[in-house]
Amino acid sequence: MVHEASRRGNGGRARAGWTLAVLALLLTAVGAPPAGAGAPAENPARVVREVRVDDRTRDVQVRSPELDGLTHTRWVRLLLPKGWSPGAARTWPTLWLLHGGGGDHKDWTAHTHVEELVADRDAIVVMPETSGCSAYSDWWNHGRGGAPKWETYLLDELRPLLERAYRADTRRAAVAGLSMGGLGALKFAAARPGAFRAAASYSGAVNLLHKSPDGGFDGPDAVKAGGLVCLTDWKRVWGEPGHPFDTTDPADVRQRAIWQRNSPLYQAARLAGTPLYVSYGDGTKKGPDWTWGDPAPSPSRCTDPAAHGRDDGIERAIHGMNQEFRKRLAELRIPATVCASTGVHTWPYWERELVASFPMLMGALGV
């Protein structure tokens, strides 16, 4: 483990064609302008349906005008602690787990043992559904704004809704995510300093202005591909990043400021004071050498490869982004727990890192 100063079974194996789709979706992870400060006076989000999955799991369908689609609804999966009830006099801290590109609210319970991990913890786990191309951002929409407004929905509507209706604590929250969700976790922590007591990113797309030094994927290239997969104009999300991606004119920056304003790398200074956990692989196919039920992951896994491998184009790009991000944290003297290892972009690694970061996340919540 490096401290920067300065399903279960074979669920991790990708289905045929899955990797290519996720590549396009995952690397669409960039941000849009931060949502307005403070929650609206009247919360427009409403619960329209609740499904009891088991004794401790609820799927909650929420409607909001900030959401896209005909129904303007999305699901949220909640893992509830022992003793929870909607009428309790007390509240519970929350751990938010964000899905990656192409994922949904069921991903964490489908591909990890998160239920067992939190079984004896006195906290609510919140797993919201967004969209495959959400980037956890309010979309630019060619300067017009409007739906979808993912950041506004999650932070200004869903969070207060959970506080009001599901006894979520108003102050004690932590956030973690994988891939696009890793971007979301760090993006939210930077956009709202102090709103989350800790943030963790697993293979996070932390700098979508990344320029590959050796012919690999550039961040904006993947955003454009993601627009095709999501059947939308990619410029709706954050506009165009300008030079050196869209033009040879260094003075032509187009909407680069929007990309920078929502990039964890460019907003890293706003992460000061928030406990951070950052993990990523190098794109080399090598087993995680850890499975659920093993002892806690050993720090020896964090071999800190200086260069990327070539087996997995997704994690190859992720490696470059995170190398840049940790360098920026060091320049700012912002501490972070970093684990860089061999590995590729898939669930066995993310579950391992969730388990490794879990004590930090729970400690920040006082659980």
UniProtKB/TrEMBL annotation:
Any Pfam family matching the protein: Esterase
Give the molecular function GO annotations: acyltransferase activity, transferring groups other than amino-acyl groups
Matching InterPro entries, A to Z? AB_hydrolase_fold (IPR029058), Esterase-like (IPR000801), Mycobacterial_A85_antigen (IPR050583)
User: Which protein, by its recorded name, is this?
Assistant: Esterase
Species assigned in the record: Streptomyces albireticuli
